[in-house]
Specification:
The chain is of the alpha+beta class. The chain is built from 8 helices and 30 strands. 44% of the residues lie in helices and 23% in strands.
């Protein structure tokens, strides 16, 4: 009844407020009120009913008691009347007094018994009244408690009504918000339809632009192909001019110091001085070839007498002892004389050594990289996990001298080192997220280059601009550095983790090797302008690329990988020209994580390629031999150079070839730097 009344009151309130109450909310409130009624009101209805019945029964017993009292009074009066009648009868009729007395006595006894029963009933009724009174007291207390609970229930009902009112208000606001959202959604649908129409229009325009762009790109490609051809011709001409200029300088000096003196000695001998020293074969060849000729003519003769090819053995022309063999003999004598004057042996006479001519414990820990000074320097540098860079004078190493200088300053392992193109500075990349630039003349730090967010793994220098260097690190960044001012000129993010990098010999292309075995090419000029996209990509290896070296011909890129192979990659076509392997060749590791390290090197003449192995050997491949020679799939015959030591050999981590091709430098995981000399040099 209370729940129905509450619901009717709620409906009346809703109608009074002119608010439509949702049926589900009414049902929910009715359910809650029904639960409150069943929990807080229904259990006490039986108790209240028992209490009311007890009070009614107590009243009935009190009425019965009063009736019994009245009947007892009447019986007492009747008893008194009977006693008076008995006395009267005794006086009136003494004869039958005894019989009447007996009858009266029997009646009195009966009445007494009835009175005793009445008293017993009264006592029992009194006991029931006392018990009913105690029950009534308990029922009263229970009724009071139930009244309090009922009051609390009423308070809860009022709270529920307030909640119902707030819920109705929230529902009204929700309806308003839904209506607004519906309007916004409809507006969004309209905007979407307009955007789809515009996107279709843009897609049509984009297709037209793409066609026009492809036509423009094709024209640019044709133009770039022509420019590349002209560039290659200009590079070839520049190389010829550089060789001619260098030969002119060297030849002028040598002719002053040696050729002229020997020619003068030859003239004395021809004059009939019997005690004079006879002419050497080189002097006779020079005298026969240089008579009335310029140095350029002599270089032309030399160039015509020598031929070197990338894929085959180098040819070598040796000179005779005089000019009696005619023009061909004079040219051969000139070539041999020039080779002798320049202090070089013909390439065909070079042989690989059996052991290094000097082995030095250079670093306290693993050696990470080695580099040589180019193009005509005599210095070498090695770096390692002992935080230092050691400088070596290759002219003095054979005499037993130690490092010519020790460059310090880095606070962690030095991962890579390189010389600038002018040979004046050396730059190193370290695990401490920085690069250090030292001045070789003073040994002092010139610049500390910071900006990488992780360890710097590799550094390369521009081959013609000594002010430009490049680096890559574990922060997936490729950075270009201005070494003259010591700051980062450009930072380029990489989508893949770069591990090593190298710059082409003419300086226009930068190559990066990545963890997935791919090689990316970058345009240096575009990188300087901030372009962050590589111009070419190629999957060369199956695992981490550990080394990149640009060959001297400016056409090939030597790569090494943790998949235990080396490859020669053509810059222009991005195709593998030759792959080098050896049955026992595996890449060495450095550090607790076992990161692959294998810095390979190519000789200046591109005849040899050297790389260190995990077994402690220096593997050398002869590129002038037939690739089919030796075992199948190895890329050509391979010679292994080993140190003659008793203990277990540590993995060879890095190798580098000197600019004159006379020396190979290798470094291993134990910090040992070895110098190998090719016979005949």
């Amino acid at each position: 009844t209370g729940v129905t009344g509450a619901l009717s009151n709620g409906s009346q309130i809703g109608r009074a407020m002119n608010v439509a109450v949702d049926a589900c909310i009414c049902n929910a409130v009715a359910s809650q009120l029904s639960d409150l009624y069943s929990l807080q009101t229904a259990p006490f209805l039986a108790i209240v009913y028992d209490y009311e019945q007890s009070i009614q029964r107590s009243r009935e017993l009190q009425v019965r008691l009063s009736q019994l009292d009245k009947e007892g009074a009447e019986l007492r009066d009747e008893n008194a009347q009977l006693h008076s009648r008995l006395a009267g009868l005794q006086e009136a009729n003494a004869a039958d007094w005894q019989a009447q007395a007996k009858v009266a006595q029997a009646q009195v006894s009966h009445l007494e018994r009835e009175v005793a029963g009445l008293y017993r009933d009264k006592a029992r009724i009194l006991e029931e009244v006392v018990s009913l009174t105690s029950h009534a007291t308990a029922a009263k207390e229970e009724a009071e408690r139930l009244g309090l609970e009922l009051e609390q229930a009423r308070l809860q009902v009022s709270k529920q009504r307030e909640m119902l009112a707030s819920t109705e208000a929230e529902l009204a606001s929700e309806r308003t918000a839904r209506e607004a959202a519906s309007g916004e959604l409809q507006a969004s649908f309209d905007t979407r339809e307009a955007a789809l129409v515009e996107a279709e229009h843009l897609r049509t325009e984009n297709a037209s632009l793409v066609r026009r762009l492809m036509q423009t790109k094709e024209r640019e490609i044709d133009r770039m192909n022509e420019i590349n051809k002209q560039h290659e011709q200009m590079l070839e001409q520049a190389a010829v001019l550089r060789k001619e200029a260098a030969a002119d300088r060297e030849m002028a000096t040598l002719l002053k110091q040696r050729a002229i003196s020997e020619a003068a000695g030859g003239c004395t001998a021809e004059g009939g001085d019997a005690g004079a020293r006879p002419l050497s074969g080189a002097a006779l060849g020079l005298k026969a070839a240089f008579g009335g000729r310029s140095l350029r003519d002599v270089l032309g003769l030399q160039g015509s007498s020598q031929s070197r090819g990338r894929g085959g053995s180098a040819g070598c022309v040796t000179g005779g002892a005089g000019g009696a063999g005619g023009a061909g003999g004079q040219q051969a004598g000139a070539a041999a004389g020039i080779e002798q004057l320049l202090g070089r042996a013909p390439e065909a006479q070079l042989t690989l050594p059996e052991a290094p001519y000097r082995t030095v414990a250079a670093h306290k820990g693993a050696c990470c990289s080695v580099a040589t000074q180019a193009p005509a320097g005599h210095l070498a540098a090695s770096c390692g996990t002992d935080h230092v860079v050691q400088m070596w004078d290759m002219h003095l190493v054979g005499t037993g001298s130690g490092p010519s200088n020790t460059l310090r300053g880095m606070t962690a392992a030095v991962n890579d080192v390189a010389f600038t193109s002018d040979g004046v500075h050396v730059i190193a990349a370290g695990t401490d997220k920085s690069l250090y630039l030292w001045d070789l003349s003073t040994g002092q730090t010139r610049h500390i280059l910071t900006g990488h967010g992780g360890p710097v793994g590799s550094v390369a220098v521009h081959p013609t601009d000594p002010r430009l260097a490049m680096s890559c690190g574990e922060d997936r960044a490729l950075k270009l550095w201005d070494l003259s001012r010591g700051f980062c000129a450009r930072s380029i993010p990489c989508t893949k983790m770069p591990n090593v990098l190298a710059c082409s010999r003419e300086g226009s292309v930068l190559a990066t090797g990545h963890l997935d075995g791919s090689v990316c090419l970058w345009d240096v000029r575009q990188c300087q302008k901030g372009d962050s996209a590589p111009i070419a990509k190629c999957q060369v290896h199956a695992q981490l690329v550990t080394s990149l070296v640009a060959t001297y011909s400016d056409g090939l890129l030597l790569t090494a990988s943790k998949d235990n192979s080396l490859a020669l990659l053509d810059f222009r076509t991005m195709s593998t020209v030759r792959q080098l392997r050896a049955p026992t060749f595996t890449t060495g590791t450095v550090g607790s994580l076992g990161k692959g390290r294998c810095k390979a090197a190519a000789s200046p003449t591109e005849k040899y390629v050297a790389a260190g192995g995990d077994d402690g050997g220096l593997y050398v491949w002869d590129l002038h031999q037939d690739p089919a020679a030796g075992q199948k799939g190895m890329g050509g015959p391979c010679t292994i150079l080993r140190q003659k030591i008793q203990k277990r050999a540590e993995p060879v981590i890095a190798a580098s070839w000197s600019a004159d091709g006379a020396t190979v430098i290798s470094a291993d995981k134990a910090g040992i730097v070895s110098f190998w000399s090719l016979a005949g040099l």
